Amino acid sequence: MQNWISVINIREYLKKDESGNREDRLRQLLAGFSCGKNPDVEKLKPITVNAECVSKTMRRKIVRVGKADISGNTYTLWAFLIAQLGKNYTEQADKNVTGEQLLEAAAGIIREIQYMVGGTVVFLEAEDNEKLMQFYEEKNGFKRFNTKSTGCDTESSHTLVQLLKVI
Predict the structure, then answer these.
(1) Alpha-carbon distance 143 to 119, whole Å?
(2) Which of 14, 62, 124, 151 could form an S-S bond across to 157 if both were Cys, CB 3.0 to 4.6 Å?
(3) Cα 27–chain centre separation
(4) Closest to 122 measured CA to CA, from 80, 161, 63
(5) Shortest CA distance to 52 belongs to which of 38, 36, 69, 35?
(6) Cα torsion at 74, 81, 110, 105 (round to 10°)?
């Protein structure tokens, strides 16, 4: 890696600092980060989870990495997004890999990233169909927390189910 590029694993950074003011030094370091071409990368984008949609056990887990609103009805938290997970259905290619294998491949990458950047929650958006919901909820432990419309155009818009899982 070039000497002008810095990659910071927050866990490693905090582990090496013996001075006692680790978090202050880390805040100073990150406060100097700016990306004028794409300001979105300067901050994480949170998701909001309605407390009614998750169990008390999951609430206790997500409150560690998120923030409850004053009333305790919603939690705002940061999570990894699994996006564009799909199988190739040309020439019987769908027989070569299972949904479980695809999801495990994504989960393996997230575990590596989780070590480097931290994090506790992963989420995804999926079509609201019975087979997909059974796959994500029953077989893989995801929980529904919201729905989302895909667009303004009523002909092409549809609803996606948002699901999360504590990792």
Answers:
(1) 17
(2) 151
(3) 22
(4) 80
(5) 69
(6) 130
- Cα–Cα distance, 160 to 147 (Å, whole number): 6
CATH among 2.60.40, 1.20.1260, 2.30.30, 3.40.630 for 44-166: 3.40.630
Residue spans of the domains in the chain: they are 1-40, 44-166
**CA-to-CA distance for 23 and 40, rounded, in angstroms?**
23
Is there a contact between 138 and 93 (Cβ–Cβ < 8 Å)?
A: no
What tens digit of pLDDT does each residue of 105-154 get? 888 888 888 887 777 889 998 889 999 999 999 999 999 999 988 766 66
Hey, what are 36's tokens? 């004028």
Q: Tell me the H-state helices in the chain.
A: 10-16, 22-31, 56-62, 99-117, 130-133
Contact 162, 128 (CB under 8 A): no
If 0-12 CB within 10 Å is exposed, 13-18 middle and 19+ buried, where does residue 40 land? exposed
- Report CA 124 to chain centroid distance, whole Å: 7
Could you tell me the two tokens for 128? 């609201």
Nearest in space to 148 (alpha carbons), one of 69, 50, 56? 50
* pTM, full prediction: 0.62
